[in-house]
Amino acid sequence: xxxxxxxxxxxxxxxxxxxxxxxxxxxxxxxxxxxxxxxxxxxxxxxxxxxxxxxxxxxxxxxxxxxxxxxxxxxxxxxxxxxxxxxxxxxxxxxxxxxxxxxxxxxxxxxxxxxxxxxxxxxxxxxxxxxxxxxxxxxxxxxxxxxxxxxxxxxxxxxxxxxxxxxxxxxxxxxxxxxxxxxxxxxxxxxxxxxxxxxxxxxxxxxxxxxxxxxxxxxxxxxxxxxxxxxxxxxxxxxxxxxxxxxxxxxxxxxxxxxxxxxxxxxxxxxxxxxxxxxxxxxxxxxxxxxxxxxxxxxxxxxxxxxxxxxxxxxxxxxxxxxxxxxxxxxxxxxxxxxxxxxxxxxxxxxxxxxxxxxxxxxxxxxxxxxxxxxxxxxxxxxxxxxxxxxxxxxxxxxxxxxxxxxxxxxxxxxxxxxxxxxxxxxxxxxxxxxxxxxxxxxxxxxxxxxxxxxxxxxxxxxxxxxxxxxxxxxxxxxxxxxxxxx
Length: 487
Prior knowledge:
By secondary structure, the protein is an alpha/beta fold. Helix content is 35%, strand content 23%.
């Protein structure tokens, strides 16, 4: 709980991809691990893997050329491996990890394997507590629109490209850099984007001061002559930018605030998207987006600076690419409409993300004629729920109807006295009128929403856990009303 990963030194250099030999990935079916597997296969590296359960991702990796992908973990799976790749979620007690350690095989963290893949490419890393997946996706789409053929690894599927990872025909190589376990220090980028510096993952960092220190290390890891792009509106990233400038680094900032190098002068809603006027060095630019909210405008500005100033892309082409950006999976992803009710799914799982999402959605329903906003929120991690319960309550306050599922523990064991009621109790006490339901089962939550939602309403399913499964079930229940069935 001090921000130091005891298992890996992410400041150590990594071997080039050609020296990895046969690579085995534990928990290969996860979003991040499967992305690394796809990139390794595209580079011609022999790949095997294992996961606790079978599924479409495992079959897709078999189809892509993985030599073997097993269901279940067994020491025999790693006998022929030269390199083992794991995430922080895979414990040392895992039989495959233990066997690799005993055999003296190389064991790399997922981020170190990505850094190995990036090798001599122009390395671009996008970090931040909020917005890094969308910024990464926007950056890749902008570069492609400008004629580049980047390699990339994002935290979610990019809608236009149909994947979250690919090997391109040349520089740059764009990665979403995860700060949750300190692994964003592995990349040594030529271009770094920091969307914000905010307290999160305190189960690893312990204190906000340790979070800030880690981001300083990340900024310091930018290679000499490289570029740091930072959000001017966020106090943490602005302080990071000021410190980097003082040390002689090249820094560009973006935001609505005066003083930003790329400043947003105004943003107006345009359907589900926005139209914004930007100014850079006295020249006005137009930014049109299909995705809603000021937070997405900021993410687009960060992507623009990284693409244009960091990677040399043509400005007009990047803006055109951003205008066609249709989103990343589970980032305000419209799952469908039934009986006049729209269902949107989102991965937001910390309080600032939830606040940006809910306030944006509330503004949309108010503009569209006074419909109601329903939010089904699944808190993620007991420690995060305990530490930020009041902030989550404030973030959910603009909604008309809030359903709080039980906490999704993920890597954590339950904590005594910690549950979704810690969010629900202060939410009920906040000003305004809303209904709050705490602790229903997923099936009960679906029934509650189907009974309450009316044409013109918007429903959000929110969280980093399995709440995403409710979207199709909600649409089925809403459609059943039209068909005369029972929701």
